[in-house]
Write a structure and sequence with these properties.
This protein has five helices and no strands. The protein is an all-alpha fold. The protein has one domain. The longest helix is centred in the first third of the chain and has 24 residues. The model has no long low-confidence stretch (mean pLDDT 94).
Length: 90
């Protein structure tokens, strides 16, 4: 299972609060898209969820390609990821 990056985790903790963030992070860790950057997939789900745990379920259940496009992380996604989540955290 791919670990959630620190910058995606930070956003999840801000948007979902202490009550739901651990559950959302576990859901993200369970996601896999063949030959795709896990951070990109996790970020797409977080963007589509907009802080709503029910939307996390929905976003995690749609085709990953749709998640990328609908979240704005389709083509040229790296600058958008940095814009939404900030620079990578070490």
């Amino acid at each position: 299972m791919p670990a959630v990056s620190k910058r995606v985790e930070a956003r999840v903790r801000r948007e979902f609060g202490s009550a739901d963030s651990d559950r959302v992070l576990r859901q993200l860790e369970g996601l896999h898209a063949e030959k795709q950057d896990p951070e990109r997939y996790h970020a797409a789900v977080v963007l589509l969820a907009r802080g709503d745990t029910a939307r996390v379920e929905w976003a995690a259940g749609i085709d990953w390609r749709d998640a990328f496009v609908w979240s704005g992380l389709g083509g040229n996604w790296e600058p958008r990821l940095d814009e939404e989540f900030g620079p990578p955290l070490n």
